[in-house]
């Protein structure tokens, strides 16, 4: 383990620097609530279609049902993911990942690092992939996936997605038992930033949310997304789909959704996700898949040099 | 001349559960491929780790046998048409020999001209044939396959390298843009890549690079290291076979270690701890000499002993986090009375088309009460059953079961105890899921057995009612397993239940008490009875009854599993007796006559119409057997009765001209037949 323990923001900066050196753009977090980094348009939308894409970013991920009022040392209403997506997936992506751990001071020979099968699926977004959870001394610190289907469209070329659980990994690196004891940066602790939000969001999600209003909001967001899709306004439509998804998660946390209804809501979101994925590819095609051209030009340029 | 052939597919980490069967698949396909190509070999050895599937073909022939033979084909007039063109027959003949029609020549054979070819082929070299190994890779199947890069080709995980060595020669098999060579990869962290001079160097060369390629050897290493640890600490373990297999296929170089956790977690039900360790972390749980679970665990690292302390403390920390989580769920769940959970079952769906869990529980109570009455169970059993039926699905909405669904039933039992329910009620909640597999353990208690049968019957009744009937290939709700469980429990508890009578009664009782659709009387309830009878058949087959006995007992009008099993036992026991054949012959003779006469009349026998003593004797004999309960005694009775029956046939003309006498005799025979039916349709028996 490193001599001086890495704080969270150093950790993030090191990861950004590392992945930038592997060709990733460093993107800002996307500003609509979502349950996972995968749902950022920088992953979901960019996964479909033939264009290459390489990006990394921190994504705050809200999972209302996991809220524990800030009392559980490891479960959070909102945790942070460090997301790396590269399309097409580089041949040595596993090796890159292991190198990125070294950058964080985790030397594989001093630990037990394992790739354990975990095929990822997000039925509400029509997504499926094949891959692993990565174990560091028995702890799942990352999710590693080769996307096969996104928005019910085949992902081709295949995109690799690596999701680091920032709090998990940081707890390991800083050797703390509670995420609230983590140092975020410059001496400020995780608890100083997130303890109250955790409590308040849990209180809201489990006790104070208004089911009727949430149900109305879901319908409203869905109708808006549909209307925008019919006008080919892909990105605002996608924002409203994210809002549908988050609203559903709030309803679910409240226990307001029965098993049967659940399937119904999930299929409504999935339909929208499929449509937006299709529209995104169509719109990019109208523009001649600009990133595909870029890549070709870059390659041609290199060959001419 | 022969050489060994080594073929290795190097991949990213494969799922543990596919490794063993995939390498077997690779060997099987290769075996078939070599046989089809006429390449002789001694045997195929397999090696596998999470990152490689490897076969070593021992003593593989260097080439096929040479061919030098003359082959006779069709007659000339069939081989050529009037214009001298080759016919389809001729073309087919040539093709069949791997030649073209141009190779055909004619020669006389017994006065007729025939087409001939001289097939002279040097046997193909193995080194050429082995290039076809790429097709074997392409043909392999996996539960989940994936694409990578821009390829359409799918495999279980991306392929990174191929080794293909025939003796010391590389056979450059190609797949995608990978060409096989002699370079393999060592352990991901401890090893380096290594260039193999010879196919036979494989095992040792990789051992030097911290890869134990022989899966059995890896497993042995794990078992030995585990046993050392256990001995040293005076512990006990009960290593789960599947877990051992899985762990073996998660590592290339195993090092076993032990860790521990705070004793305070041992206050939780042991199943919670075991699930956290086993299912989530792939740890082996540890017991003391008295079989009590203790605060240690055993796990396997993919690596050597270096920095093992890091690995141990990391794993301990992870487990504690999981146990903390479980503790949170446990404490939360214990805060509420059971009614808090029971109330929520109205919103938990049993099935969309059937209704809620709460509704199911109401039906199960009605069914169970009916059964308890039918079996004259004690009042206390009924009381406990009624209470259990009000509660038994409640743990589905607890936090613990939400997190660990495999603990359903078990948590119900613990929480019920904690809430002060009595032991019978608590245990029944756990036992109602049993048997969980077709041959799994059965509920041990009476209340648990009753609840399990009622719950499963309700499932079958409502699914049939809703039209969701299993087909031969599709049974998504495991109704067969449910029905088989019912049969096993009934037999175990010696609970008699004639389904043909009981089902309509149960369905009647449910009418108006549930929104669920119920089976239609007369058609669907008969379908259910026959569905269950098929499970009785399965049970008899499983327990090695002779097929004709199974056919006989199931063809009777008897629908009670207990009676059917008893009949099968009696027939099986006496099957080889000297008397068996005459008894069966006499009884089937009766059935045949009744069938022929299409007798459906009154079976009441009028003694005043008797004409001789043989009729009186048979009458007395039948009367004697009328009240026999035990089927073994009934069979013995038939052994006694057999000469009487034969004498009856010898003395009397059954189809007498006088209708009264005729019908009286038929009535007498049908009384015998009814008795015999309790043993089965004996005409199905194959007798010598």
Automatic annotation (TrEMBL), chain A:
It is found in: Cytoplasm. Its main location: cytoplasm. One of its GO terms (biological process) is glycyl-tRNA aminoacylation. One of its GO terms (molecular function) is catalytic activity, acting on a protein. SUPFAM superfamilies: Class II aaRS and biotin synthetases. It catalyses: tRNA(Gly) + glycine + ATP = glycyl-tRNA(Gly) + AMP + diphosphate. PROSITE patterns: AA_TRNA_LIGASE_II_GLYAB. It is an enzyme of class 6 (ligase). Tetramer of two alpha and two beta subunits. This is Glycine--tRNA ligase alpha subunit. It comes from Lactobacillus acetotolerans.
From TrEMBL, chain B:
Its EC number is 6.1.1.14. The keyword Nucleotide-binding applies. It catalyses: tRNA(Gly) + glycine + ATP = glycyl-tRNA(Gly) + AMP + diphosphate. It is found in: Cytoplasm. The keyword Cytoplasm applies. GO terms for molecular function: arginine-tRNA ligase activity; ATP binding; glycine-tRNA ligase activity. One of its GO terms (cellular component) is cytosol. Pfam families: DALR_1, tRNA_synt_2f. GO terms for biological process: arginyl-tRNA aminoacylation; glycyl-tRNA aminoacylation. Residues 585-674 form the DALR anticodon binding domain. Keywords: Aminoacyl-tRNA synthetase, ATP-binding, Cytoplasm, Ligase, Nucleotide-binding, Protein biosynthesis. It comes from the Bacteria. Tetramer of two alpha and two beta subunits. HAMAP family: Gly_tRNA_synth_beta. Belongs to the class-II aminoacyl-tRNA synthetase family. This is Glycine--tRNA ligase beta subunit. The gene is glyS.
């Amino acid at each position: 383990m490193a001599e001086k323990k890495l704080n969270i923001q150093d950790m993030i900066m090191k990861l950004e620097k590392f992945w930038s050196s592997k060709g990733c753009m460093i993107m800002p977090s996307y500003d609509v609530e979502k349950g996972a980094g995968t749902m950022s348009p920088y992953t979901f939308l960019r996964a479909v279609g033939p264009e290459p894409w390489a990006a990394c970013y921190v994504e705050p991920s809200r999972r209302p049902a996991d809220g524990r009022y800030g009392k559980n040392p490891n479960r959070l209403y909102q945790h942070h993911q460090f997301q790396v997506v590269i399309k097409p997936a580089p041949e040595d992506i596993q090796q890159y990942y292991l190198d990125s751990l070294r950058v964080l001071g985790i030397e594989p020979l001093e630990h037990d690092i394992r790739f354990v099968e975990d095929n990822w699926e997000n039925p509400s977004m029509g997504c499926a992939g094949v891959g692993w959870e990565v174990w560091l001394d028995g702890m799942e610190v990352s999710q590693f996936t080769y996307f096969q289907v996104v928005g019910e469209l085949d992902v081709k070329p295949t995109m690799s997605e690596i999701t680091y659980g920032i709090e998990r990994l940081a707890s390991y690196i800083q050797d703390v038992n509670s995420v609230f004891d983590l140092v975020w940066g410059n001496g400020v602790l995780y608890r100083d930033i997130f303890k109250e939000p955790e409590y308040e969001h849990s209180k809201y999600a489990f006790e104070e949310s208004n089911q009727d209003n949430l149900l109305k909001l879901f319908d409203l967001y869905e109708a808006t997304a549909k209307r925008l899709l019919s006008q080919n306004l892909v990105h605002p439509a996608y924002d409203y789909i994210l809002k549908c998804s988050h609203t559903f998660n709030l309803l679910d946390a409240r226990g307001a959704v029965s098993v049967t209804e659940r399937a119904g809501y999930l299929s409504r979101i999935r339909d929208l996700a499929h449509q937006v994925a299709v529209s995104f590819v169509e719109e990019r095609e109208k523009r001649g898949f600009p990133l595909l051209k870029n890549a070709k030009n870059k390659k041609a340029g290199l060959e001419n040099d | 001349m022969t050489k060994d052939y080594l073929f290795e597919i190097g991949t990213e980490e494969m799922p543990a559960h596919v490794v063993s069967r995939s390498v077997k698949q690779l060997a099987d396909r290769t075996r078939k491929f070599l046989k089809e190509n006429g390449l002789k070999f001694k045997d195929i050895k397999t090696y596998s780790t999470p990152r490689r599937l490897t076969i070593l073909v021992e003593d593989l022939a260097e080439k096929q046998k040479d061919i030098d033979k003359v082959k006779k084909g069709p007659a000339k007039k069939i081989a050529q048409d009037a214009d001298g063109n080759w016919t389809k027959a001729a073309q087919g003949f040539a093709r069949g020999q791997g030649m073209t029609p141009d190779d055909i020549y004619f020669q006389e054979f017994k006065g007729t001209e025939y087409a001939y070819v001289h097939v002279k082929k040097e046997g193909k070299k193995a080194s050429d044939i082995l290039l076809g190994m790429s097709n074997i890779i392409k043909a392999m199947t996996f539960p989940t396959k994936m694409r990578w890069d821009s390829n359409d080709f799918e495999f279980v995980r991306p392929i990174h390298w191929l080794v293909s060595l025939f003796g010391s020669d590389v056979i450059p098999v190609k797949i995608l843009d990978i060409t096989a060579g002699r370079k393999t990869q060592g352990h991901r962290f401890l090893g380096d890549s290594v260039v193999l001079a010879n196919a036979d160097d494989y095992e040792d060369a990789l051992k030097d690079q911290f890869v134990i390629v022989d899966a059995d050897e890896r497993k042995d290493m794990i078992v030995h290291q585990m046993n050392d640890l256990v001995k040293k600490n005076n512990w006990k373990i009960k290593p789960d076979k599947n877990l051992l297999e899985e762990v073996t296929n998660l590592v290339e170089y195993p090092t076993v270690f032990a860790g521990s956790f705070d004793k305070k977690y041992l206050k939780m039900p042991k199943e919670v701890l075991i699930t956290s360790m086993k299912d989530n972390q792939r740890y082996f749980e540890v017991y003391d000499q008295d079989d009590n679970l203790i605060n240690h665990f055993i796990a396997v690292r993919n690596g050597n002993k270096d920095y093992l302390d890091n690995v141990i403390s990391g794993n301990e920390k992870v487990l504690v986090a999981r146990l903390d989580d479980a503790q949170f769920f446990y404490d939360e769940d214990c805060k509420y009375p059971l009614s808090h959970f029971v109330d929520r079952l109205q919103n938990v769906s049993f099935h969309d088309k059937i209704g809620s869990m709460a509704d199911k529980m109401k039906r199960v109570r009605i069914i169970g009460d009916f059964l308890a009455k039918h079996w004259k169970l004690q009042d206390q059993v009924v009381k406990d059953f009624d209470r259990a039926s009000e509660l038994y699905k409640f743990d589905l909405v607890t936090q613990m079961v939400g997190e660990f669904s495999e603990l359903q039933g078990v948590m119900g039992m613990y929480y019920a105890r904690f809430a002060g329910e009595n032991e019978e009620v608590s245990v029944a909640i756990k036992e109602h899921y049993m048997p969980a597999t077709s041959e799994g353990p059965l509920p041990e208690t009476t209340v648990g057995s009753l609840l399990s049968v009622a719950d499963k019957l309700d499932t079958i009744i409502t699914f049939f009612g809703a039209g969701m009937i299993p087909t031969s290939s599709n049974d998504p709700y495991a109704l067969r397993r449910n029905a088989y469980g019912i049969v096993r429990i009934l037999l175990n508890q010696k609970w008699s239940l004639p389904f043909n009578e009981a089902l309509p009664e149960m369905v009647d009782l449910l009418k108006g008490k549930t929104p669920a659709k119920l089976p239609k009387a007369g058609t669907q309830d008969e379908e259910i009875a026959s569905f269950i009878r098929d499970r009785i058949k399965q049970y008899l087959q499983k327990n090695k009854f002779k097929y004709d006995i199974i056919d006989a007992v199931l063809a009777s009008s008897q629908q009670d599993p207990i009676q059917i099993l008893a009949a099968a036992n009696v027939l099986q026991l006496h099957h080889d007796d000297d008397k068996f054949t005459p008894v069966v012959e006499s009884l089937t003779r009766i059935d045949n006559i009744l069938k022929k006469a299409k007798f459906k009349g009154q079976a009441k026998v009028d003694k005043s119409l008797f004409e001789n003593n043989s009729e009186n004797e048979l009458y007395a004999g039948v009367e004697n057997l009328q009240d026999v309960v035990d089927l073994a005694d009934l069979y013995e009775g038939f052994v006694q009765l057999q000469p009487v029956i034969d004498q009856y046939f010898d003395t009397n003309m059954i189809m007498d001209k006088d209708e009264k006498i005729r019908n009286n005799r038929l009535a007498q025979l049908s009384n015998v037949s009814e008795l015999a039916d309790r043993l089965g349709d004996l005409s199905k028996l194959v007798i010598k």
